[in-house]
Design goal:
Helix content of chain A: 40-55%
Number of strands of chain A: 10
Radius of gyration of chain A: 21 Å
CATH superfamily of the largest domain in chain A: Butyryl-CoA Dehydrogenase, subunit A, domain 3
CATH architecture of the largest domain in chain A: Up-down Bundle
Distance between the termini of chain A: 46 Å
Order of helices and strands of chain A: HHHHEEEEEEEEHEEHHHH
Helix content of chain B: 40-55%
Strand content of chain B: 5-15%
Largest sheet of chain B: 4 strands, mixed
CATH class of the largest domain in chain B: Mainly Alpha
Oligomer: heterodimer
Number of domains of chain B: 3
Number of helices of chain B: 12
Largest sheet of chain A: 4 strands, mixed
CATH superfamily of the largest domain in chain B: Butyryl-CoA Dehydrogenase, subunit A, domain 3
Structural class of chain B: alpha+beta
Radius of gyration of chain B: 22 Å
Chain lengths: ~350, ~425
């Protein structure tokens, strides 16, 4: 039996408490060197690349590990790697030590659609003044800083005219509230009322931040896909173990062909997800120009299958699968939230269709 | 040898391969296939649609590149896995056609390499790679489909020779094949998996006859095959007497992977979405005008792409020494289910016209747009025929696969490994 490297983070009890507990759960992240995964060595990181990072995300999906890996270690670091030396020096060592959390503030509407960024940033003094709102910020409530997608020119819906700024959490005019989703993790809704940032808060190029934003989001999408793959594998294995043990009509329920056919189909679907996720991870290094397509494919397929896997897991567990006492339900909750983050199936399918010429 | 040096070796191979293909692949063989006649199967009675087709098969055969990874001494290319991949990429780059379709390469060859005697390998394998002998597979019988191991074709030891009497069914292209690899019962007393042997014989032998089966698609890729006291030389037995089931199982894993591979319903050429765009037009943003169909097509693309990546991953893993076992059944199951959906979508994107049968070789509507498939372009009747035939393939697949695959997952342990494979995909 493979020893789970992240087993120390397995904490169903914490999930349970948080899910049923008060709205504010406080800062519970362990200080963890895993956040150093993509940080360059000169800033204290290990610069291990996306394929390795995908394995970590997959393990976290298996264990339902709540950590800022995707928000901070994958997305924020990807953005900061294209920042100035000063920005890197200021933020990367803290991330590498596992002390600093930085979240991406992108969504504003009901569904993910980065081109629809409306939050405005206008030149003000030597810097910029930000006004608007961001919602569903992953790990936003506990973050030390936010990387904010803001509109510096153009119309809502345009890809040009979007710029990225890093904003510290104690900036005047910034107010955050926790958004509680059914996976019991830390999301934030944040309002910006005349939030002033210095000129050096800009990451990348003014008005031309969309390509960088897409690269950042693609890394996050593939991270989520890998996590959902892990969740699918784990809930599938737990279910197979269960139906081999559970007896009804004098035999284990796994002996019934009805369940076997469904299990075999699910097994096949999970194999497809493995391939899509692996390829998407490899593309960041091997074919960066295809990374967007790979990310859309992986996120779409992983999301679709994770929901199927979780639904089938609860269904095949029977009544006990519906109880809060049993762990399988946590997978169903997490993958539902993860499917919505950074673009759901329809969003990714639409992107792929455009890329494939229809 | 360091990594860089190794890499440069491969780069040299790529350059040489590119140059050789440039010189030796005729221009006609770089155009998409238009009909089944453009697929080259070789054999004693090979029918070539043009001289270039013959030349291409012969040149590739002489080089051993029809079976790139087989050892050179048996007529193969002797290439490493990496080199074979480069060859494939370079062929794809110039859109070179497959020089030789062959059950010998896909199924019998791997079995002979593992179980055949030295003499058998030396005799049969080069004939296969050069496309001189076309093989068919004698497995299924009227009373032995999914339950293949209950086959009844008798093979008796007559001293100097074997005598084979019985009937096979669903024998692909038996009427066009030169030789057959055949499962026969050599011990009628033993438990059913332990009395089967694997033999080879000439389809021109006295007592062999074939009768094509017309399918609901109108085509006849399968035959009934009859053996009436066929004399077979004793040296044509492969492996050990009564141990043929092991070979049958081994060969089946290759066959299933191959079926999963074949018929990608349009993946290799234009996307099915692009085909729909050509037929139905776009809106102002350049997107397919029919939004509901577009969503279905996108779903098919996502599954198709994920499936293709899975084929690649499993091939890599198999070559790296990890058995694919139950997963070959998975490929067949998922591949046929997916192709069925894709053909439905291709037909839907053509309207009533998409349900036209056409006639082989000549489109029924003079200007009917040609549709891409993985093998190139066929006229639209091809899709209807293929779609209908996929119901057949699918029909034969799932029952065997599902039981198989679940065994692979490990729920159901009481059946033997042999039974698992035998109650497999062939019906």
């Amino acid at each position: 039996m493979k020893k789970r490297r992240l087993a120390r983070f397995v904490n169903y009890a914490m999930m349970r408490t948080r899910w049923a507990g008060p709205a504010h759960c406080g800062r519970k992240w362990p200080t963890w060197a895993g956040l150093a995964f993509l940080v360059p060595e000169e800033y204290g990181g290990i610069d291990y690349g996306m394929v390795g990072a995908g394995l970590i995300a997959e393990e976290m999906g298996r264990n339902l590990t709540a950590s800022p890996f995707i928000s901070t270690a994958l997305m924020a670091v990807t953005a900061l790697r294209e920042g100035t030396d000063e920005q890197k020096e200021k933020w990367l060592p803290g991330i590498a030590e596992g002390k600093t959390i930085i979240a991406m503030a992108v969504d504003e509407g009901v569904k993910h659609d980065p081109a629809k960024t409306a939050l405005s940033a206008v030149a003000h003094g030597n810097g910029y003044r930000l006004n608007g709102e961001k919602s569903y910020i992953i790990d936003g409530f506990d973050a030390d800083a936010l990387i904010v997608a803001a509109r510096t020119s153009g119309e809502v819906g345009d890809e040009t005219g979007i710029s990225l700024f890093i904003v510290e959490k104690d900036a005047a005019g910034l107010s955050s509230s926790r958004t509680k989703l059914l996976d019991a993790r830390n999301y934030a809704h944040t309002e910006f009322n005349d939030v002033d940032v210095a000129g050096d808060a800009l990451i990348g190029t003014l008005d031309d931040g969309f390509a960088l934003l897409e690269r950042v989001l693609n890394v996050g999408r593939v991270g989520l896909a890998a996590e959902m793959l892990g969740a699918s594998e784990q809930s599938f294995e737990m279910t197979m173990d269960y139906i081999k043990e559970r007896k009804q009509f004098d035999t284990h329920v796994g002996a019934f062909q009805g369940l076997q056919h469904r299990s075999a189909h699910l097994y096949s679907e999970i194999e497809l997800v493995k391939s899509a996720v692996l390829k998407a991870l490899q593309m960041f290094g091997e074919a960066p120009e295809m990374a967007g397509a790979g990310a859309a494919l992986a996120k779409a397929k992983a999301g679709e299958v994770a929901i199927l896997a979780a639904n089938e897991a609860v269904q095949m567990h029977g009544g006990i699968g519906m109880t809060d006492e049993y762990d399988i339900g946590f997978y169903m909750k997490r993958v539902r939230a993860a499917q919505e983050l950074l673009g759901d199936y329809a969003f990714q399918a639409n992107r792929l269709a455009i890329l494939r010429g229809f | 040898m360091n990594g860089e040096f190794f890499l440069s070796d491969l780069e040299t191979f790529r350059k040489e391969t590119r140059a050789w293909l440039e010189e030796n692949c005729p221009a006609e063989m770089r155009k998409p296939m238009r009909s089944e006649e453009d697929a080259c199967w070789g054999g004693r009675n090979a029918k070539f649609s043009c001289e270039a087709q013959k030349l291409w098969m012969e040149r590739m055969g002489a080089k051993g590149w029809t079976a790139p990874e087989w050892p050179k001494e048996y007529g193969g290319g002797g290439l490493s896995r990496e080199e074979a991949k480069i060859l494939k990429e370079e062929m794809a780059a110039i859109k070179a056609r497959n020089p030789l379709m062959s059950f010998g390469i896909w199924m019998l060859g791997p079995a002979l390499l593992k179980y055949g005697s030295e003499e058998q390998k030396k005799h049969y394998l080069p004939q296969i790679t050069r496309g001189e002998i076309r093989w068919c597979q004698g497995y299924s019988e009227p009373g032995a489909g999914s339950d293949l191991a209950s086959l009844q074709t008798r093979c008796e030891d007559k001293g100097d020779y074997f005598e084979v009497t019985g009937q096979k069914i669903w024998t692909s292209y038996a009427d066009k094949a030169d030789w057959i690899f055949c499962l026969v019962r050599t011990d009628r007393e033993a438990p059913k998996h332990l009395g089967i042997s694997f033999i080879l014989f000439d389809m021109q032998s006295e007592g062999v006859s074939t009768k094509p089966i017309t399918l609901i698609s109108g085509r006849s890729p399968f035959c009934e095959t009859f053996f009436d006291q066929v004399k077979v030389p004793k040296e044509n037995l492969v492996g050990t007497l009564n141990k043929g089931w092991d070979i049958a199982k081994y060969l089946l894993t290759h066959e299933r992977a191959m079926i999963g591979d074949a018929g990608d319903g349009g993946i290799g050429g234009r996307s099915i979405g692009q085909i729909a765009v050509d037929s139905l037009g776009t809106d102002a943003q350049g997107r397919l005008a029919d939004q509901a169909l577009r969503a279905d097509l996108a779903r098919a693309e996502i599954d198709g792409w994920s499936f293709m990546l899975t084929m690649e991953r499993m091939k890599d893993e198999a070559k790296a020494g990890q058995g694919i076992g139950a997963r070959s059944s998975m490929l067949k199951y998922y591949g046929t289910e997916m192709n069925k959906r894709r053909y439905e979508l291709l037909m839907a994107s053509q309207g009533p016209c998409g349900a036209g049968m056409g006639r082989r070789g000549q489109p029924r509507w003079g200007i009917a747009p040609r549709l891409a498939t993985h093998q190139g372009q066929f006229h639209r009747g091809r899709h209807v025929r293929s779609a209908i035939e996929h119901y057949f393939q699918t029909y034969s697949g799932p029952s065997g696969f599902l039981r198989d695959s679940i065994d692979g997952i490990g729920i159901k342990r009481r059946r033997t490994n042999a039974a698992r494979c035998g109650q497999g995909v062939l019906e």
